[in-house]
Design brief:
Blueprint (H helix, E strand, L loop, with lengths): L18 H13 L7 E4 L4 H13 L10 E5 L3 H11 L5 H21 L2 E4 L2 H11 L6 E3 L14 H11 L6 E6 L8 H9 L5 E6 L4 H14 L5 E5 L6 H6 L3 E5 L7 H8 L4 E4 L10 E3 L5 H12 L7 H7 L2 H17 L3
Parallel strand pairs: 1-2, 2-3, 3-4, 5-6, 5-8, 6-7, 8-9, 9-10
Length: 344
Amino acid sequence: MEINAIDREPYPDTIFFTSSVVLFYRYLKYRKTNKPDVIHCHGHFAIWLYAYRAFLKKHFPWAKELKIPLVVHFHNTAKGRWVTFEKQGKPIKTMSKMLGWPMAVFSDKMAVKAASACIFVSEENKKEAQEYYGVNPNKCFLIETGVNTEMFTPVGDEEKEKSRKEIGFDRFDKVILNHGVMNERKNIHVLIDALALLPEDFKLLLSGSGDPTYVEKLNEQMKLKKVEHRIIKTGYTPYPHVPIAYQVADLFVLPSSWEGLPKAVMQGLSCGIPCLVSGFKISEDIRGVFYLDNLEPQAIADKIIEITDKPRDVDVQLIRTKYSWNQKIEAIDEIYDFATKNYI
C-alpha cells in the first residue's frame, strides 16, 4: 500500500480551493503512468475529480478515463445537513453559508453524476441524495458504518479499573464518554449542561480535538456550570489508543443534531458500552442503543440516570457478526463488481 497524505484544509471551508486542488493535480500526475482498477472516493476532497468526470461523461462519453469505475462513499449529504440546521434554527457560520456549504452541495451533485455507484452509510442519507440530487436509485447502495471488532473489544473489571486510575477516574465514578471531533452540531455544550444536573459521581470524558472557537466555548461552559473538576479532556487521541476511552466508560453519549452513522457509536457498541445518541437511526434495533428524543439538558440527564441505574446488555455479538470490517469489505467488493460492469 502506498499512502500520499494531504492536509485536510488550511482553514475551515477552504478545502475546495486548497487541498482538493492538490489532490486533483496529484491524481492527474498519477494517471500518466498508472491505471487503477477502481476509484473509491470519500467526501469533498475529490470535488474536482467528480467535476472532471461529470464533464467527460456529458461531452466525451468514450473517454478512456470513464472506463475506470468510480465509487463515491457518502457519510452525509451537504444539502440534508443544511436543511436540518435551518429547521432546527442552528447558527451557520458566514463562511460556511456563503462558500463552504454551497460548494459542498456542488460537490455532492457532481459526485452523483460522475459515480458508477454510490454508497451511503444510512438509509436517511440515501433518501436525501435521491430527494435533493436526483441520484439514480439503481446505483445507490446502503452499507452502514463498520468497526474494527478486533481492536474495539470489551475488557474485564481489572483492566478497566487500571485504565481508569491512569486517566484520573476511580472505580466508583460513573463515566460518560463523548469521542470525536467536537463542534456545534454535536451539542457537547448541552452535554456539559446535563452533567451539571447529575450527581457528583458522574464524570465526563471528552476524547478528541475540535474547532478552537467551539472548544473555548466549552471551557467557558465548564466554568460557568462549575463542573471543571468532573471533566477530563484528552484532546486528540492516536487511533490505537482510542479503545481505552470506551473501555473505561459506563456510557457513550452523542446528543447530535445531525449525523450519518457515526463510527464512534459502532466503536462503543463493539466495546460493550451502551450508547445514548441522536441525529440518526440505525436500520435495525440493536440492544444497547438508546435514542434521545429531546435535547434539553434535563431530558439528557434523566435518560443518563435511567440507563446507568442498572447493568445494560449490549449485543456485541451482533456487531461482530454484521458490522465488522470483514463483513463490510465483502459488501464493498460486491459494489466494486457492480461498478465495474456499469462504469458509464
